[in-house]
Write a structure and sequence with these properties.
five-stranded antiparallel sheet; 3 helices; globular
Length: 128
């Protein structure tokens, strides 16, 4: 893994009847022993969700991978910029959710699904 990993938030969604895979990320320092992505992860997830909410004004929005629809991934910047675009393009063209999730997991040093439950707030659980 690179010296400074990158934390990437992404969502597997359908927007107005078409697949979309919006993402955002930021360098993540000092996280080598973190069990979850902490405040940076929450911030990236919130930013992504707010962008999705804004998009919903232009058409319907739905998750396409259940609880695996909102993810946080730790990966080297090189892998993100070199391999993630091809994975995204394949999935957008009709690729299988399971195949995409397996490829994302293989690229990531660590990966979490982001979920929420009433009265419990946001939680991160490892992506298996």
């Amino acid at each position: 893994m690179a010296d400074t990993p990158y934390l990437v938030a992404l969502a597997l969604v359908e927007h107005d009847g078409r697949r979309a895979l919006p993402l955002g990320g930021q360098s993540w320092t000092g996280a080598a022993n973190a069990e979850d992505p902490g405040e940076l992860g929450r911030s990236l997830a919130l930013d992504l969700l707010l962008r999705l909410l804004q998009r919903s004004e232009q058409g319907g929005l739905r998750r396409l991978a259940g609880d695996d629809s909102l993810l946080l991934l730790e990966m080297p910047l090189e892998q993100m910029s070199e391999q993630l675009p091809a994975l995204k393009a394949t999935w957008l063209a009709g690729g299988d959710n399971g195949t995409l999730l397996a490829a994302l997991r293989a690229l990531s040093g660590r990966a979490w699904r982001v979920t929420t439950a009433k009265y419990e707030g946001v939680s991160f659980s490892p992506l298996a």
